[in-house]
Write a structure and sequence with these properties.
CATH topology of the largest domain: TIM Barrel
Oligomer: single chain
Strand order of the largest sheet: 4-14-13-12-11-10-6-5
CATH class of the largest domain: Alpha Beta
Helix content: 40-55%
CATH architecture of the largest domain: Alpha-Beta Barrel
CATH superfamily of the largest domain: Queuine tRNA-ribosyltransferase-like
Number of domains: 2
Radius of gyration: 20 Å
Length: 376
Amino acid sequence: MPTDEPPANRPPTNKPLTYELLSSDGAARRGRVHTTRGSYETPVFMPVGTRGAVVHLDARDYESLGAEVVLGNTYHLMLRPGADVIEGFGGLHGFTSWDGHMLTDSGGFQVMSLSPEIDDDGVTFTSVYDGSKARLTPESATHVQEQLGADIAMVLDICPALPATPREVRQAMETTHRWAERAHAAHTRSDQAQFGIVQGGVDPEMRIESARVLADIGFPGYGIGGLSVGEPRGQMLPALEAALSELPSDVPRYLMGVGDPVSIVEAIALGVDMFDCVLPTRLARHGTVLTSRGRVNLRNAKFERVGDPLDERNPFSNNFAAGYLRHLLKVKEPTAGRILTQHNIWYLFDLVARTRRAIDAGTLQQVRDEVAECWD
């Protein structure tokens, strides 16, 4: 049930980030995260701006959409234009002209997706831009993110693709633990919160072990990584629940890389606060739209003469006929990608806002049922 809301301006603390619980519904939490920049509401969905922008959008769009946190990618930004260049602009906020919250990943996802060389000390990548070698260690990933100046930085981890053998999952988890200790020791920026990352595949026991190790290090927030990377939801959710059971309750919990509506709502019911994913923007570029009636493939010929909007509730597309947007998509007009990207991001923003209201009212199960009916 809702708790009494405190004053909007809380007393300053010496911590770069604090979590405030506002209400709960079972394990689900409605909260507010306070940083040195300000605050944002949870549960929250965070769009991914890999190279310094969400594809098709800029900071003015973030503002109009109501974005609270936007991601940047450490690996890509350190290669182009370079962390020192961005630091010269005053960090990512100055570089992108965005005053809202920013989070940078560590490059850990690229450990899975780019198949780099991994050793005990760090990771050696081949640049996707010019083929040159690039190196990340727990210390250098920490330093690069301090240069980028995001409000939240993630430790360097190893995210094994699933399915993987128990030995592979354990090796990745134990290396992640050692690297987390090194990253924590290397982090010096007092206005930036550094999050640890729990690994352990879909094994609940390993997830519990990993969460305990990370909690003992003492981060101001925790990511749960290595899920939604090939495993079915029926395996993901028990592993997630196991990790959450051992993480502190007074800090944010962030499920990394999850963006499908059912998984978001089910994870919120377990106590997750933060989400990010490229799903809404990637789907938009290929003509797939998230609506209150479920997923829609706008390339389908049945939309050619449809004069109604895709979703009358969505303010970023409800002025346009579905047939018009399909036409733009078919002739490869970039405007289609822009409109559909805004549409999809707004849908997920609206979804997490609905869960916040439902947690306040104690009716989250109703939202879970509605989403499952449309999306499963």
